[in-house]
Amino acid sequence: MESLHNSDLVRGNIDAFILRVLLDADNYGYQIIKELGIRSGGRFELKEPTLYSSLRRLEQQGLIRSYWGQETQGGRRKYYTLTPDGRERFKVKWQEWQAARAIIDVLIGDGKELASGDGQK
Amino acid sequence: MESLHNSDLVRGNIDAFILRVLLDADNYGYQIIKELGIRSGGRFELKEPTLYSSLRRLEQQGLIRSYWGQETQGGRRKYYTLTPDGRERFKVKWQEWQAARAIIDVLIGDGKELASGDGQK
DNA sequence: AATATTACTTTGACAGACATAGTTATATGC
DNA sequence: GCATATAACTATGTCTGTCAAAGTAATATT
């Protein structure tokens, strides 16, 4: 399984990924990981420490709130829900990504000068 | 001037930016910064310590080589040139970016659920 | 002479992602 | 019933890339 070396290239977007999932519905940690795995077609795997430290950060910033689900059986689950601020923040994050993507696209080029052999000037 | 908070969202792509510039022509540090500023329409500003530590890293990895320009007057300039490995590495970096971009696009959404008011489910 | 600009360098701090490990509970296999 | 696997969350510490701050040295400008 390949996935992609994660870290640097997705850095800064993980908070947005989580907010995006919570935009659809309240959810709990483990399921958020699964959900991101599914949505990415198995190409992205969010690690647990990364997830839970993100969640803590987001909660401290008032972008999400948490509550314990009342499971009658099975392990406890802490659910997270978006706050209005979180909703707003996602919008901003989304726009920032659009802007960053455009800049990176320009600076990294469109791949025309790659071809197969080498680059002629 | 706004530019964009840099760091996290472009992280991991800076090496590729530099390699991309050197793909066009040998160049020296200060000019690479200028070049990236121009290509991005002033929206991206590479900081000096970031540039020079990137250059050192790239040189250690054998992706670029350096030589002092023989300026008869004016300050000394250390020029950098791509090695074949560097050329190859740029290709890889480029492809990694394409892959990462696709995944991020999926996970952050297309913005349909943003609209203006709020999201209806 | 003072200031600005070009060009490169050093040091240290910060923050996000993750490896490693551990805890608690339920479910499953033998 | 005991071992193992899996679900779900938590804690600790490390690594790496980016950048702020500051400095050096030379030329150009006022």
From TrEMBL, chains A, B:
Classification via InterPro entries: Metal_resp_DNA-bind_regulator, Tscrpt_reg_PadR_N, WH-like_DNA-bd_sf, WH_DNA-bd_sf
SUPFAM superfamilies: Winged helix' DNA-binding domain
Domain Transcription regulator PadR N-terminal: 18-91
Highest taxon above the source species: Bacteria
Pfam family, one: PadR
Name of this chain's protein: PadR family transcriptional regulator
Lineage: Bacteria, Bacillati, Bacillota, Bacilli, Bacillales
